[in-house]
Design a protein that fits this description.
Length: 171
Amino acid sequence: MLTLSILRHAKAGTERPGESDHDRPLAPRGRRAAPLMGHFIAEHHLEPDVVLCSTATRTRQTLDLISAEFVSEPRIVFDEALYLAEPEDILGVLRTRSGLVKRVMIVGHNPGLQELVLMLAGAGRKGDLALIRSKFPTAGLAVLNFTQTDWSSVGPRTGVLRLYMSPRRLP
């Protein structure tokens, strides 16, 4: 079984004059939320073997803060193709960059990640799917399971949404 964790970057600051969108850092709220989500991921044994991360500053900072909570250190791949990517492009990166590992996390941006979750989830808790359909918030996490044994076989509606969590839903 394959497990894909999809994590939207934590809350970013507003773009300042002369600063590119790619270089926007996390806002204070994002710096608080990311470690909480990292703790949740570690506590629920959802740590990935590989993380595929956008090259944007806010995704890198989110990854640094969540992974500091992990027990084991995943292999990290920064990929510019994930920056503001469409769901089909994200899936392409997943299929080609994941290798033989069973647990992958993608750290990226909306609307691509939200659309990817909805594209891949053929089943799952209806309430969680409805929440994701309406909004996939910053630092939101969706975890999907697949019966496939190879990432190249993962496609639309082949996954089961196992879990959905956001900072506001944390106990």
